[in-house]
Amino acid sequence: MTSSVRWERHGHVVTVTIDRPQRRNAMSFETLQSLRDGVARARAESDVRLLVITGAGDKAFCAGADLGGVRGEELDAEAAHEDRGRLAELFRTMWSSGIPTVAKVHGYALAGGFGLAMACDIVIASDDAVFGTPEVGVGLWPYMITVPLLRSMPPKVALELMMTGRRVGAVEAQRLGFVNEVVAPGELDAAVDRVGEQIVAQSPTAIRLGRTSFYRALDSSTEQALALLQSMLSVATTTADASEGVAAFAEKRTPVWKVSRS
C-alpha cells in the first residue's frame, strides 16, 4: 500500500480507505492501482469475508479522478490510454474477488467515486452523502462507470444522471434503489459493522458461489442465467458448508462454517 490508500484488517473484515482527504479523496492513477492491490491482498488472505471501501476525512467518500494529476500524466497519449483502464481493472478485481464488498459513503461520491461506490455489493451512506456524474459539465462523459451504474439502478435513471450531471442526496439515492441504507453521520460506522457482522456470520462458500452466480446471471440472457443457476445449485449441494448447514439445522445448533473461501 502507498500513502494514498490505507489497508486495515480486523478479524474477517478488511477496510480499504482512500487517504487523500486534502484532495477529497480524488483518485490518481497511482491511487487506482493501490486500491486494486488492496483488493487483491484481501483476496490472497483466504479467511477474509468482507471488504469495506471508504474515504478518509468527513468531506468525501471519493470526488472522482484527480484531474490535476491526470493532466500531468497525459503527456504520453498511449500510456495515458492504458492508465485509464485502471478503473476498469479495479472493478474486475472487486467483482472476481469472491469477497462481498460494502461502500461506506459520506460526503461527496462523484464521477469515478460514484462508480466505485456502485461497484460495491452494498452501499451504506450517511445522510450527508451526495452522488453524481458531473463529467458532462466539463465536456466529458462518465464512460468508465457506465457498467456499475447500470448494475445498480434502472437504465433511464443512470442516463438521466449522466446527461444532466445533477447531484442526488442520500435519501433520494435510497429511493432510486442504488443506496441500501441511509443513517446519520455518527451512526455510519455502526451501520456498516452491523451489516458486516450479518454477512460474516454466513457460509463463506455459499456467499462466494452465490455472489458470483448473481453477477453472472445479471449479465446473461434469461435462458443462459437459468442454465447457469441450475448448474450452480448442483455444485452448491456438494459443498462442505451445505452439508454442515443441513446437519446443524437438523441438530438445532449453530453451524460451524469452513473458514477458507478456497
3D structure, described in words:
The chain is an alpha/beta fold and 262 residues long. It is 48% helix and 16% strand. The chain has twelve helices and ten strands. The strands form two sheets. It has a six-stranded mixed beta sheet, sandwiched between helices. A four-stranded mixed beta sheet has the order 4-6-8-9. The protein is globular, with a radius of gyration of 19 Å. The two termini are 24 Å apart.
Please summarize what this structure is.
The two termini are 24 Å apart.
Layout of helices and strands:
Layout (H helix, E strand, L loop, with lengths): L4 E6 L2 E6 L10 H16 L5 E6 L4 E3 L4 H7 L3 H8 L1 H11 L4 E5 L2 E3 L1 H8 L2 E5 L3 E3 L13 H5 L4 H10 L2 E3 H7 L4 E3 L4 H13 L3 H15 L3 H15 L3 H12 L11
Parallel strand pairs: 2-3, 3-5, 4-6, 5-7, 6-8, 7-10
Antiparallel strand pairs: 1-2, 8-9
Protein name: Enoyl-CoA hydratase/carnithine racemase
Organism: Haloechinothrix alba
Family: Belongs to the enoyl-CoA hydratase/isomerase family.
Report the principal-axis shape. Answer: globular
CATH superfamily of the largest domain: 2-enoyl-CoA Hydratase, Chain A, domain 1
Count structural domains. 2
Instruction: Please report the distance between the alpha carbons of the first and last residues.
Output: 24 Å
GO molecular function: enoyl-CoA hydratase activity
Catalytic activity: a 4-saturated-(3S)-3-hydroxyacyl-CoA = a (3E)-enoyl-CoA + H2O; a (3S)-3-hydroxyacyl-CoA = a (2E)-enoyl-CoA + H2O
Pfam families: ECH_1 (PF00378)
Family: Belongs to the enoyl-CoA hydratase/isomerase family.
